Predict the 3D structure of the following.
Amino acid sequence: MRAFITGVAGPALTGQERQFLKEAEPWGLIVFKRNVADPQSLSRLIDDFRSLVGRQAPVLVDQEGGRVQRLGPPHWPSYPPGAAYGALYDRHRDTGLAAARLGARLIAADLAELGIDVDCAPIADVPVPGADPIIGDRAYGATPEKVAAIAGAFAAGLMAGGVLPVLKHMPGHGRATADSHEALPVVATDRATLEVTDFAAFRPLADLPLGMTAHVVFSAIDPVAPATTSVTIVQHVIRDSIGFSGLLMSDDVSMGALSGSLSERTKAAVAAGCDMILHCNGKMDEMLAVAGTAPQLAGEAARRATAALALRKSPTPIDVAARRAEFFKLMAGAEPAAGSA
């Protein structure tokens, strides 16, 4: 198989996509709202994908809650943003952590029923005043200790439900002054400050199985390349300073923050040390470019991928209806006050 994760265009695979999946052999599939019509058709799409690649390949989704959830009403509940857990945490630490774990456990129940076994959450980004709102209320808090604690609880809830978490966006997107979907953010903060703030939020989570990079330039460390394509950031910050040992995937290489062709972006991310390339938009010409450049999954990248997937477990049984009622009762009135993120 090749070291990339692909999206597809719609709720059912086209003939061209079927041929592509057979020939390109991506490691995994990521689904978006454009792929979701109803639970039955989404399950068929996932089953078709796995049948074509011939294995129980990972299927990913972004299901954080709040602004970032690909599955929602009328078929699935609407979950709160990360800052809501932070607001509960501020009132009572254990309650906030229990809510984050339970919310993630319920999200995992929704996903596992469909065959989705990887959630691109939690985020451990620490926002600062004046940053672009792309993170905003997605963040669990404004201190690394609080963020790491809630993110850890969220990750534990996912894993208890048989879904692997993806820690993002390493080594931190909270200071970004631009939305990396549209433009390249540059953070000029000195490294000493970054080490005890942004990077510190990720260290307690460094043993999670999967992680995702940030398309952000940290000019005090690498003045040219964003983290995704920076050897210095990947090796010396994410691997060494943070200590992350799991499979590292790029953020979506089709995003506006990166420059060059899709092939050039893929080569740069792999050369920097990303184990896996993520490409999301389902545009066939771009999919072909990424597939044609992504390497075979081998060596340390293959070892990390195998270790991550080995952690997929059968969910611990819960009464979903009862726990869902408990969760939403717990979250009632937990909307964060202004400035509490």
Summary: Residues 218 and 340 are 26 Å apart (CA to CA). Residues 11-45+72-76 form one domain. Residues 336-341 have pLDDT under 50 and may be disordered. The radius of gyration is 19 Å.
